[in-house]
Write a structure and sequence with these properties.
By secondary structure, the protein is of the alpha+beta class. The chain has one domain. 34% of the residues lie in helices and 26% in strands. A six-stranded antiparallel β-barrel has the order 1-2-5-4-3-7. The longest helix is centred in the last third of the chain and has 15 residues. The model has no long low-confidence stretch (mean pLDDT 92).
Length: 195
Amino acid sequence: MSGHIAEVIEASTGEFVAQSYEVNQPPPFGSLVRTADGDADLYGIVYQVTTAGLDPGRRAVALGRGEDDPEAIYRTHPQLHQLFRTDFHALVVGYRAGGRITHTVPQRPARVHGFVYPCADQEVRQFSDALDFLPLLLAAQPAAPLEELLAAFLRRAAAARPDGRDFLVRAGKALALLVRGDVRRLSVILERIRP
């Protein structure tokens, strides 16, 4: 299978970190990506992206004085693509084994050096048809604001289907049951997913 955009460089049962093959070109915040542990495909939602130097002791320096376009810096200094890396963290929210999607944390973490693929609309629809991933996502403690992450993924899942508005209404009703004791949190999420 081709089309991988990154490689897993660190993994635990609840998340994985991947390095993008292209600097400054990670999958978008809130997007669904897929990798494998050997027996199953693991699904993760991208929640944090970092671009930094390969050498943690050396920070980037400003190189664009007199330039009109940031891309000109990379054209003038092509070695920059070799001096930096873009990593992203993905929260594991389910897996596919034996053709069946399960919205729980898998038994094993992703394989280090496993390839990471962006999920196309059809796969996003299949993953999000059942909203069983919502409790797992609501219980997570990612570095990014959880409400923003959840809303970004739900908007992406809605955009992947022709009945996007109906999907958001269904997701909003499910969220209302799951966070009924936290009106502020529910209001923030519903405001962010409003079509």
